[in-house]
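Reopening this ticket.

The earlier resolution said the output was attached, but the attachment link was broken on my side. Pasting everything inline this time so it's all in one place.
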Amino acid sequence: MKSATRRTLAAFALAAGLAAGAQCVSAAQAAQRVLQRRSTATAAKLVGEGVAAVERGDEAAAREAFNRALQADPENVDAHTYLGVLSDRAGDFKEAEKHFAAAAAYAPFSASARNNYGAVLVRLGRTQLAAAQFEASLKLDRDQPNALVNLAQIRFNAGGAEDLRAARELFARAARVAPDVEIARALVVIALRLGEREQAAAAYKDYASFVSAATGAGASAAADAATSAAAPSSRAELGAALLEAGLFEEAARELDAVVAAEPSNVDAVVALSRVHLKRRDIPAAGRALEGAVARGVDDAKVYAALADVYAAGGYVENAIPAMRLAIARDPKNESYRLRYGLMLNDTKAPGAAVIRVREALQEFPDSSPLWLALGIAQQGDGKSEDARKSFERSLELDPRSVPALAYLGSTYGERGQYAEAAALYERAIAAGSNFAVPYYLAADAMLKQPAFDAARVESHLRRAVELEQDFAPAHLALGKLYVRQERWDEAAAEFERVTKLDPRSADARYQLGRVYVRLRRTADAQRQLDAFKQLSEAQKEKRETDRRDLLRRLAHVNF
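Inline output:
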């Protein structure tokens, strides 16, 4: 009985001890909570002081207040965030990362904390981790413009087609939440990068409406938001991209704005002249460049562009002096010396072209394009053997030069060596498969041989018209091939296409008349043959000129 009583008392004593201990822990916890509340209140007060210091521009006092807040409460998200912002502003991205990472850790469900952390990671080049933070931020708040734009920018910079499409979807979401000129511009650029011309034109309309609104808004918020996107440098870059995409009206609008803002911007003036040339508005192209010269812009690029405009308008007497001015301003420019030689040759002065290109070769003896230009001038001057040697030298310096291969092929074709010519034209195809002219020239040389591979010829001609749908000589040759194969309906379609593209082609009229006879379209045949008789005399000297023009197109494409 006594032992049982002792066990009971011992158990009671143990329980009492545990209870006393529990009372002591509760008291400690209560005290800790009081201290935490006081620390939190102190930290909040210090954060408030820091914010006030930021607002009055005293960053040193702000930093001190925020750091003291962290001493009072190391997990204070606001203090970490403000210190991160101040460090970021000062360019200390490592320190900013430390504070933004802490804020994201202590407030894992804060969309803004995640976004801030992602933004500083981008600055540090850690884009994969940054993207993960932006994605986490968007899961917490899917309509958060900053995170959408930040993640879109990462996808855009990756550059792949799928990345660009992902970027577009993110930018589009951001635009629905918070329409913005920078976002609108990004959507235009993405469509251009993806080669989506119609989408780019549609996106440009939205972008242009933002810019117009900002222009008329004076110092409003809309004008401030559009400042960077509507800056001359941004508009010049966009204008150049629109020009390359063939959106000439849109490009003209951007570049006009740039020139209006910066009348001495040489690159913008030259790009604007190119836009007008593409629109076949030669007078407007001339006015853009001549206006720059009148404003005192004395630059080689402007004179060179002016030479091109004069040449396009048929004012050769003005083009040559303009190119001379370009060379005088930039005598070490190989391209200008080349274009000058080609221009002289085009003006039926091949002898002068030979002299000037030889002078240029003294400066640039290893220039494949200049050796090509010398060969072109020599060919125009009737010196075929010299031209062949120059073309061969051009190929020694650049074995994959498409125009050099094509011109060398032409020297063999002129001598009736069609197999050798065709081989060189096919080498040109292998060197540059996106040019229509070599395909046509190869097929034409094959057709002139006693025996030829009809399927290969047809393949070359089909590729030529695929690359250049309005390539009349290729359509004509394809029609003649169909005639040999008695494919009358297909031949008629090709010749009809040629007569629309080149109504003064006597050969097309004659061939079409013959095909109509085969198709028993007697009246149509007679009309085509009558037209042929009227045109045939004027065509006798045209064939060789046409061939030289095709080759010159190749030279212009490469230079």
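Reporter confirms the inline version is readable. Residues 1-25, 27-32, 217-227 have pLDDT under 50 and may be disordered. Residues 2-55 form the longest helix (54 residues).
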